[in-house]
C-alpha cells in the first residue's frame, strides 16, 4: 500500500504557465484525507513553494517539501528546515574559478536569498531569483562568513554556451559535486550527496515507510533519483526521454493534470500499485 507520494513541481504538478489545476488539487486533497503523506520535491527554495503548500492544504503535520533538489527538507507544519546537505563559500569560489573561460554566470542560493558577484546579472539570473521569490544580493564571494551554507550553486547563460559547457564539464567539477542540467539555460551544482532521492529516502526513514510504500511522480532528469527510491515510479507524458525507462507507469502530461490522473487511479485501486 502506498503511504507516501512524492511529486516534482515544475513540468509535473503545475502547468507550463506554473498554475495548479483543479484536478490536481482535488486528487491531492483526497490522498491526504486517506492518510497518505505528501512530499513536494523541487529545485525551488521554500520561499517559492509556500504558496503551493498552502493552496494544496499541505501545511499540516506529516507533509514535507524537498527544496533545491534535496539540499533542504522542510516540515510544512513548522515551515522550518529539518535536515539537508549544503555547500560552503569555498565551493562557490572553486566553481566560479573553474568556469571563468565560459560566458556564464555563477550564483548561489539558500532559503533566504539569491547571491551573485555580477553587478550586471544576466536575464536568466534575474528570472530565477524572481521565480524563487528571493531577493537578489550582489556580493563579493570573499565577504561571506566561512560558516555560510548554500543549497544550490547555479550556472546560467545562453543555451549555446550552456550546451558547450555541459558537453565539456571540468572533471574536478563532476568528481566533487552533483551536477544536473534542469533547463536549457541552467546547470545546478550541489553537494555530492544531494539529490531528490536522497531527501525522499530520509523522509521515508523518519516516517517508518519503506520504498515499496512510495509513489514518485516526475518529468526531468533530476527526478530520476527520486523515482529510483520509489516502489512505484510514475513519469509524465511530457517527461524527458531519459526519465521514462525508470517509470512503472506513464501518466498524462502536466497540461492535462497527469498528477491528478495518477493519484485518482491509485485511490481507485485502494492505494495499491496499478498498471
What does this structure look like?
This protein has 275 residues and is of the alpha/beta class. The chain has two domains: 4-85 and 194-269, HAD superfamily/HAD-like (Rossmann fold, 3-Layer(aba) Sandwich), CATH 3.40.50; 89-191, Hypothetical Protein, Haloacid Dehalogenase-like Hydrolase, Chain: A, domain 2, CATH 3.30.1240.10. It is built from ten helices and 14 strands. It has helices at 9-13, 22-33, 50-55, 89-98, 123-132, 159-166, 171-176, 196-207, 224-228, 258-268, and strands at residues 4-8, 37-41, 64-67, 72-75, 80-84, 105-109, 114-116, 136-138, 152-156, 178-183, 186-190, 214-218, 232-235, 249-250. The strands form two sheets. An eight-stranded mixed beta sheet has the order 5-4-3-2-1-12-13-14. Strands 8-7-6-9-11-10 form a six-stranded mixed beta sheet, sandwiched between helices. The radius of gyration is 18 Å and the shape is globular. The two termini are 14 Å apart. One of its GO terms (molecular function) is magnesium ion binding.
Question: What would the keywords be for this entry?
Answer:
single chain, 275 residues, alpha/beta, Rossmann fold, Hypothetical Protein, Haloacid Dehalogenase-like Hydrolase, Chain: A, domain 2, 2 domains, 8-stranded mixed sheet, 6-stranded mixed sheet
Amino acid at each position: 500500500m502506498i503511504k507516501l507520494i512524492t511529486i516534482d513541481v515544475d513540468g509535473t504538478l503545475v502547468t507550463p504557465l506554473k498554475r495548479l489545476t483543479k484536478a490536481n488539487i482535488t486528487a491531492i486533497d483526497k490522498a491526504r484525507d486517506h492518510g497518505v503523506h505528501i512530499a513536494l520535491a523541487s529545485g525551488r527554495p521554500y520561499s517559492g513553494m509556500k504558496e503551493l503548500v498552502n493552496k494544496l492544504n499541505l501545511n499540516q503535520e506529516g507533509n514535507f517539501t524537498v527544496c533545491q533538489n534535496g539540499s533542504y527538507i522542510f516540515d510544512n507544519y513548522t515551515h522550518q528546515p529539518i535536515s539537508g546537505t549544503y555547500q560552503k563559500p569555498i565551493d562557490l569560489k572553486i566553481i566560479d574559478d573553474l568556469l571563468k573561460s565560459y560566458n556564464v554566470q555563477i550564483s548561489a542560493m539558500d532559503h533566504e536569498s539569491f547571491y551573485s558577484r555580477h553587478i550586471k546579472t544576466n536575464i536568466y539570473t534575474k528570472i530565477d531569483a524572481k521565480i524563487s521569490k528571493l531577493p537578489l544580493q550582489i556580493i563579493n564571494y570573499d565577504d561571506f562568513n566561512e560558516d555560510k551554507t548554500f543549497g544550490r550553486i547555479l550556472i546560467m547563460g545562453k543555451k549555446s554556451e550552456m550546451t558547450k559547457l555541459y558537453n565539456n564539464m571540468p572533471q574536478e567539477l563532476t568528481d566533487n559535486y552533483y551536477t544536473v542540467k534542469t533547463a536549457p539555460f541552467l546547470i545546478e551544482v550541489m553537494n555530492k550527496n544531494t539529490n531528490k532521492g536522497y531527501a525522499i529516502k530520509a523522509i521515508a526513514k523518519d516516517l517508518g515507510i519503506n520504498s515499496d510504500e512510495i509513489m514518485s511522480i516526475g518529468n526531468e532528469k533530476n527526478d530520476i533519483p527520486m523515482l529510483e527510491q520509489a516502489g512505484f515510479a510514475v513519469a509524465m507524458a511530457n517527461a524527458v526521454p531519459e526519465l521514462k525507462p525508470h517509470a512503472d507507469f506513464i501518466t498524462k502530461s502536466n497540461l492535462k493534470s497527469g498528477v491528478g490522473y495518477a493519484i485518482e487511479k491509485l485511490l481507485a485501486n485502494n492505494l495499491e500499485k496499478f498498471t
